[in-house]
Amino acid sequence: MYLTWFDNNSWLLELGEQRILIDPWLVDVLTFGNLDWFFKGSRSQQRPIPENIDLILLSQGLEDHAHLPTLKQLNRNIPVVASPNAAKVVQGLGFTSVTSLAHGESFTFNNLIEIKAFPGSLVGPTLVENSYFIKELATGLTLYYEPHGNHSPQLKQVAPVDVVITPIIDAVLPLVGSFIKGGNSALEVAQWLQPQVMLSTANAKETTYEGLLSKIITFKGSIADFRLLLEKHNLPTQVLDPHPGDRVELQLKKRVLTI
C-alpha cells in the first residue's frame, strides 16, 4: 500500500494495483459559494493531476472535497464513487460512471477493491456525509478514511483496520467548538480499530487561508501530542507525518487471526 498526501484532504491511495484519488483539491483556490471575503484557501504550489487514475473517491459534496476546478481537469470517463451529495456534483460535470453510496452500502471495483460507506461528517443541521472502509480483496489490507473526525460506532464491525486517515488536530470555532475533531476523537477510533498506522488529514502545510472564517478558527493539538496520547493508552499505532507530495510505502504486518 502506498499513500501520497497532497495537503488538506487530498490523497492518492495505491492499493491492489489501483490508483484511487480521494477528495482532490490540486489546483486553483478554494472558496465556498465564491465568497472570497468569507473564506479563501490558496495553495503555495499547484499540484499536477496524477496520471493513470483508476477511481475517484469523494466523501462530501462541499467544495473542499468535491473541488470543481480540480474535477474539471480530470477525465470524465474515470469512474467515481461518491456520497449522494457529491455524486450530484460530478454528474453535473458530465462524469459518465458515478456510483452513489448511501451509508451501509458497498461497491466492488474491478473485483479487486471493496469500498463500504459509513456515516461521516455532519454538514449542516441534518446532512451526514460519508466515511469509507476500503479493503484490498486479495491481501485483506484495509483502510478507513474520515476527514472531519466524526466516527460512527458502526465501524466496530470492521475492526481491526490496518490504516486510518483522520484528523489528529482539532479546528475550533467560537461557540461551536471543534468542527474538525482530532485528539480524543482520533484516540477513540484508534481504540475501536486498532490500526497499525494513522495519518493526519484536514491540516495544511502548503496552504494559506484568508477571509472572515479563517480569522476566528483556532487549532488545538499536534502530531507529537497525539503520539503521547496513544502511548498513554498503551496503543502501539505508528503515526506518520508525511510531507505533501511524498509517496509513502506503508510497512504493514499481516494480521494473525485468533479464534
Which key phrases capture this entry?
globular, 259 residues, Metallo-beta-lactamase, Chain A, single chain, 20 strands, seven-stranded mixed beta sheet, alpha/beta, 34% strand
Structure description:
The protein is α/β, with parallel strands linked by helices and 259 residues long. It is built from five helices and 20 strands.
Which SSEs are present, and which pair or pack?
Elements: E1 2-5, E2 11-15, E3 18-22, E4 30-31, E5 40-43, E6 55-58, H1 68-71, E7 80-82, H2 84-92, E8 98-100, E9 106-109, E10 113-123, E11 127-136, E12 142-145, E13 163-166, E14 170-173, E15 177-180, H3 183-193, E16 197-200, E17 207-210, H4 212-216, E18 218-220, H5 223-232, E19 238-240, E20 247-249
Parallel strand pairs: 3-6, 6-7, 7-8, 12-13, 13-16, 16-19
Antiparallel strand pairs: 1-2, 1-20, 2-3, 4-5, 5-17, 9-10, 10-11, 11-12, 14-15, 14-18
